[in-house]
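User: Structure please.
Assistant: Input sequence and predicted structure:
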Amino acid sequence: MRRAAADPRRGRRRLSGAAILLLSLPAAVSAAAGNGSEGEDPAPRAYVTRHAGTFNGTRVAYTASVAETLLPGAAGDRSASVFTISYVADDVRDPARRPVIFIFNGGPGSSSVYLHMGAFGPKRVPLPEDLDAGSSAPYRLVDNDATLLDVADLVFLDPLETGFSRIFSDEDRPRFYSTEGDAAYLAEVINRWVREHGREDSPKYLMGESYGTIRAPMLARALYDSESRTAVNGLILLGPAVTLGETATRPGNILAYALAVPYMAATAWYHGVVDGGGAGFENFLDEARRFALTEYLPALAQGRLLPPPRQREIAAKLERFTGVSAAYFLRHELAIKKTEFRYELLRDRGLVLGANDSRYTSPAPGGLQGDEAVDASSWAILPAYVAGLQRHLRRNLGVDLPLDYVVHDRKASASWNWGRPASPFADFSWAGVLSALMKGNPAMRVFYGVGYYDPLTTIGAAEYTVARADYPLERVELEYYHGGHMMYVDEQSFRKLAADVRRFIGGT
C-alpha cells in the first residue's frame, strides 16, 4: 500500500467546532511536596484536577493528573522519577472498551510538549497561518475541540531528564540512555499506570513522533516481554524514523538520496521554484517518485561509470524536480544532501529553509564570524508551545513543582547508546522489531503519518518503509499532510490528523 486516498466509505466524521469549557477545582490535590528527606520512603507527587469539555461534539467530564512514578535502583533505593500527564474520562460505563493512548515525542531527549500543546491535549497553542508572521508573546492558549478525549484517554510521557522527570544519580544515566533501557523503564511506567487505573483490559495504543517512532516498537516489545505481558492494539507513528538509514543522506547511502527526491519536489513546488507543467501537485510528486527509483537510483549506482551525456540528462531532470540547478548536481556527482538542499533551493533569494519544516524560511547567514542559519521552523514553534504548557500546568492543572520543565535533554542526544555498530544503513533499522510485533499479534495495526515538507523523516523514506514491510498491508495505513516534521503546526493538517487518528482508534 502506498498511500490512503480519500474514500467516503471509510466513515469519516465531521469535526465539531464547539469550544471546550474547563472547570478546574479551586486547588490541585498534591500528594507530596518533595522527594522526602534522608531515611524516608517518599510518596510520589500527584496533582489532580477535574474538568469538562466538548470534544468532537461530545461532552466529556474528565480528570487530569500530573503524577510521579518513582523507579527503584539496583540497591533498593530510588533511581529516577518519571512524570506523566493524564486525561481520563469520568463515569465511563465500560472502561474495558475505552482505549488509552500513551503519547511521547522523540529526540532522543525530547519532552512531550509538541504533541501535547500542538495536537492532542485539551488545551492547544495555535500558530499563525502566515508563516512569515513569526511567533512571539503573548501566545494563545485555546480550547482544543479536536482532542481525542471523546474516544480515548490520553497519557503524555516525559522521558527522564525531560519535563519534570529526573535521574537522581549520574551513575544510573547509562542504563536509561539507550534504545533498550529507555523502552524498559517506560514499559514499567506504563504497566504501573495500567494497574493503578485498572485498565488491563482496555485497548492500548502507543503514539510516537520522530525518535518516538523508534521508541514505540521497542516499547511495545518491552511491554510484551514484561511480567505483565502487555500487548498493544496499535502504533501511531508520526514522522516515522523506523528505517533511520533510509532517511539520512550520507556518502555511500545512495538509496537515501533517491528517497529524498519526493520531499525536495514537494518543497520546491511549495516555494514556486519548479514548473509542474500543469500536472498538479500529486501528479508532479508521482513523476518525481518514478524518476527517483527508476532513473535516478540506477544512475547513482553507476557512479562515475555513468556516461557523461546520461549524467547531463539526469542532472537536468533533477533540476526539474528539485529546483536546484543542473550545474550544482554535475559538480557534486549528481547528489545533494538534505542539509545542503536547505541552503541551495532559495539561495538566489537569500533565504534558508527551516530545518524541521521546509515551508519556513529565514535570511541566509551574512558571512560574519559565527553567523549561522536560523531555523525559522523551531523559532516559530518551540517558544509558543513551551509558554502555553507552562501556563496550562500552572493555571489549569495546579502544578507548583519547584522544577524547571525541561524541553530537550541535550545529554541524551550526545550520549545515547543505539545498541548496534555504527553503520549508514541496515544497522539503523527497527523495522525488524515492528515486523515481529505484527506477526506475533495478528490484531495489531500501524498508522504512519508524514508531512510533505518534512526534511527529517521524508515521505519517500516513509513510503519505502511501508513498501518493504513483511507484514500484511491491510493492517497498515499511511497518511500525508501539508506540513513539516510536526505536521499539526498547519491548521488544516492538524484537523485532518485528529480525524485520521480518531478513525484509526475506532478501527474504521
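The chain has two domains: 99-245+380-506, 259-375.
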